[in-house]
Predict the structure.
Amino acid sequence: MTDTFPRSSTPAAGAASDTGSAGSQARTIADSEATTAFREHIARVNTNAEDRAIARQHAKGKQTARERIEGLLDAGTFLEIGRYTGSGAGSGARPSGVVTGFGQIDGRQVAVYSQDFSVSGGALGTIEGDKIVRLLNDALRLRIPVIGLIDSGGAKIQEGVGALRQYGRIFNRTCAASGLVPQISVILGPCAGGAVYSPALTDFVIATREASHMFVTGPDVVRAVTGESISAEELGGARIHGMVSGVVHYVAEDETDALEQVRTFLAYLPSSADQEAPRYDYDASARTSDASPASRVGSLVPASSRQAYDVAEVVAALVDHGELVQVQEVFAPNVVIGFACFEGRPVGIAANQPLVDAGTLDVDASEKLARFVRFCDAFGLPVVTFVDVPGYRPGAEQEHAGIIRRGAKVINAYATATVPLVTVVLRKAYGGAYIVMGSKAIGADLNFCWPGAEIAVLGAAGAVGIIHRRELERVRDERGDQAAAAEQERLVEEYTETVINPDKAVAIGEIDAVVAPEETRTVIVDSLAALADKRDSRHTPTKKHDNVPL
């Protein structure tokens, strides 16, 4: 049983008091010898630890673990938990290799841990693992986001399997938190071996351009095993993981940029899956200012479906304040994903990018798109999809890399999503790529297209070449190549007018309406308002989970 102590120090009536006796004042806990000694001791321990951290980290152009936390959180909100876990606060007091606690970002509560490279290279052992696992469990109970600031040489070798066990416990809790609370990892130094899987399991990975390195096996091991000589930067630098592997979602210029990006991502996200994302004030003046670029959006897109344009500019013209926060901008750039708002409501954006490979879907773009749609669905963010896709990228390389399996991930993501899905076909949508890009048949709620949009199995030229192959060969044999080319052009025009225009899609209900480009923003805003109360849990008690192609 817990004792209850009165808040007042005033003696009860009739009780004896020693205050004032013999003109003396009784000493309190605040000025006792024990308290005074504790203050001096802890101040000395903390100062020495931070001075050591500053000397070691600043020499490398890096911040200390605590400086990073201060830069991330709202000023004065950090509550540290377990600073002297493992040592106690007595004469043997010493900090561990990770700082853990709670704080606020833009007034919202978060859990944060920051590995301290100045303490044994930030190596993870029993103490550090226990602290991180506790923090993750607390975040799950509190339903708040988790931010991990990673800067570690890996597991404490001297602890052997005990250290490896801690990584396993962290992985377990990270998986438990996945889809329940947002998790963001910031790589601010080395992250190697089994440790790389901790950030890889989180929703977003941010890495600094110069100091961050991630790899399962480092350059020395690679050289010893394979004979390949490769630098840490070439093997697992931020640029490689941002452009090639797709492990990193944002490549930051420096630590300040990295921490600011955490705040940017969180601004669009709810604190947990059972809460709504924040809504932002949106007044008449904002509505007026956003109407102007939205009215001119059609001028950004060439009429010819063969001409490229930047779809990011199109999206920026349609969303609030022109603000599109891209995710994985330099990985698989043939699709654009990111966050934006429509009249203060955060949404996920998915779009084909005609500037890169004509906006075709390939293995990397498919996985990028699928995971993002699944993330948005997990955290209740509507997905607005802008389609301008000629199909899947052809070739043996793509087939051998598993475009069938990976493309199926996009199908699964859209088909199982329960959040509002709004799709706009800008110019063209052909074949299987049309189906997977948020089509009505796959489960989208409201689908629109611009006038003249081409929606068909194949483009006109390809379709004519197949359908009229024999006829065109006959014309070529009888009248020559020039006549065959003229006949093909006539057939392409005829096919375009009768087959690939949006009329058939509208007639069968695949497209809800054809809208003029200048109406697009208004239609999206109205659609999101209409779908705001969508409830589609698709509960199937007999099914444990789906078997998405991984």
Summary: The chain has a mean pLDDT of 88.
